[in-house]
Design brief:
Elements lengths: L24 E5 L5 E8 L12 E5 L3 E6 L8 E7 L3 E3 L2 H6 L8 H11 L12 E12 L2 E10 L2 E13 L3 E11 L9 E2 L4 E17 L1
Antiparallel strand pairs: 1-4, 1-12, 2-3, 2-12, 3-6, 4-5, 5-7, 7-8, 8-9, 9-10, 10-12, 11-12
């Protein structure tokens, strides 16, 4: 059974304020209509690889907000925060959602979660939250490149992510994927059995969020 670090974050889009922001609409992101999750993959090869699993971890208990003006992408603003203890690994529904054909028992899900919050992974005791704050947005139409800082374990990584965004005065939707590595946040992938079992360093994040105007 392997486990891994995750965040699930995942993702958000926020940009610096401008005078044009007066025309922006504020949206509160809705967890019940959204999905923020991260996939971590087992290291292939070697006799022990067959004992390992790819993982998907869904973020729960998070909050996020967006300010968006469809006529001025540079005026967008988004902030996001999720509790590390709210990361929920490998539910049947999420494994099916990402196309995994195997299931993990409840006891194995509990073990994965324990590894996620452990000192060698996300160290929830010392770093209880994963956060995101954007710094700029660029582009036009429905595809906007959002740049911002994702902070995990107290380490911030600047990421630029193409997002597909649709919004009107009542609702907001955004979707995108991006990758980062464990080393970006200064820790190592999960290993077990003296290193015979290990995860890949790449983590794949998916942001698929819906918001309602405030």
């Amino acid at each position: 059974m392997r486990s891994f670090f995750v965040i699930a974050v995942l993702g958000s889009f926020v940009c610096s304020a401008t005078p044009a922001q007066a025309a922006s609409t504020s949206y509160e992101l809705t967890e019940s209509s959204s999905k923020l999750y991260v996939q971590v993959f087992k290291k292939r090869g070697g006799a022990a690889s067959r004992l390992a699993h790819d993982h998907v971890v869904l973020a729960t208990g998070w909050t996020g907000s967006v300010s968006w003006d469809p006529e001025n992408a540079a005026a967008c603003s988004v902030s996001f925060s999720l509790p590390v203890t709210g990361l929920a690994p490998d539910s049947d529904s999420m494994r099916a959602h990402v196309g995994y054909d195997s299931r993990l028992s409840a006891s194995n899900q509990k073990k994965v979660r324990g590894n996620i919050v452990s000192l060698t992974q996300l160290a929830a005791e010392h770093f209880p939250k994963v956060t995101y704050q954007s710094t700029s947005c660029s582009g036009a139409g429905s595809t906007i490149t959002v740049t911002g800082n994702l902070t995990i374990r107290g380490v911030s990584k600047t990421l630029s992510v193409p997002m597909e965004i649709t919004a009107d005065g009542a609702s907001f939707k955004a979707k995108g994927t991006f990758s980062a590595t464990h080393e970006d946040f200064k820790f190592s992938p999960y290993t077990a059995m003296g290193g015979a079992l290990r995860n890949e360093t790449e983590m794949r994040f998916t942001v698929d969020v819906v918001g309602a105007a405030q």
